[in-house]
Amino acid sequence: MVSLTADMSPLHPDRNLALELVRATEAAAIRSVPFIGRGQKELADGAAVDAMRAFLSTVNFDGVIVIGEGEKDNAPMLFNGENVGTGRGPQCDVAVDPIDGTSLTAAGRNNALSVLAVSDRGTMLDASSVFYMDKLVTGPAGVGVVDIRLPIGENIRLLAKALGKPVDEIVVSVLHRPRHDDLIDQIREAGAGTRLMSDGDVAGGINAARHNARTDMCVGIGGSPEGIVTACAIKALGGHIQGRLWPRDDDEKQKGADAGLKVDGEVYEADDLVRGKNTIFVATGVTNGELVAGVRREGGFVYSESVVIRSASGTLRRINSEHLTSKWL
């Protein structure tokens, strides 16, 4: 098996693979532009899927999709188990989300992303049989300090102490869902502020882990595939992430158990979600957000912003690109 560890051999991917993957997220984001704010999330997602898949087919790696569009999206492409890439080069697990935030895109709201993550073959948890996961994400200050099994108020106090700031300056991101009403109340009762997200918890988790972001913690129940994708970035950022699968009913719980997953509230640590230290996370903004700016079209050009986060080097790079409109739209 070829790994993602740094090596001079051309068979070992390095920053060059990361830069190649950016082409796929850029393509997905750009193809979604005609659908931003048009209320057609299925068409937006379909265009992004087609574009991402086309570009992935040109990348020199032997990828297997572990986290794909999945049955919840009735995906004919980029599905779990699909092979992507040229088949030459490193063997990788691949997680894709051509648009994380299709509803955000359709409504023209902030924080929609096109996302890709890769790791060594056999290192990514396949949690596709259980759609939701309860997550706790912080930056490096939370490592060994907070724990998803503790009450949220205690975690807020512990993190505030680790960060050296008062509790009333702590800001916690949470998806704005009825299932989180009690959680939101508890956060506010503890003295912290909330940043309620309408969608897009990948960006929420990454923003909480960045040292210069406006949020300190991201908690709550979101997609389990998004949890795996987020873990690839968090490990590269040196942050903290834990997750617990959240089956919606007994049938889904049984599916998860049959797949060998922990479905009784057991905690997945970062190394359980993605084993090893060799991950690459790539995201391009579809709409504007705190992590990256969204795609914009001005005259004969389309502008995009992307981030590339690599655990091997511990770097987050920003890539700003100009594309000729005539080549895309």
From TrEMBL:
NCBIfam families linked to this entry: glpX
Gene Ontology terms for molecular function: fructose 1,6-bisphosphate 1-phosphatase activity
Domain of life: Bacteria
Coiled-coil parts of chain: none
SUPFAM superfamilies, A to Z: Carbohydrate phosphatase
Family: Belongs to the FBPase class 2 family.
Pathway(s) this gene product operates in, as recorded in its UniProt entry: Carbohydrate biosynthesis; gluconeogenesis
Matches recorded under InterPro entries: FBPase_class-2/SBPase (IPR004464)
Name of the featured protein: Fructose-1,6-bisphosphatase
PANTHER family in UniProt: FRUCTOSE-1,6-BISPHOSPHATASE 1 CLASS 2-RELATED (PTHR30447:SF0), FRUCTOSE-1,6-BISPHOSPHATASE CLASS 2 (PTHR30447)
Organism annotation: Microbacterium pullorum
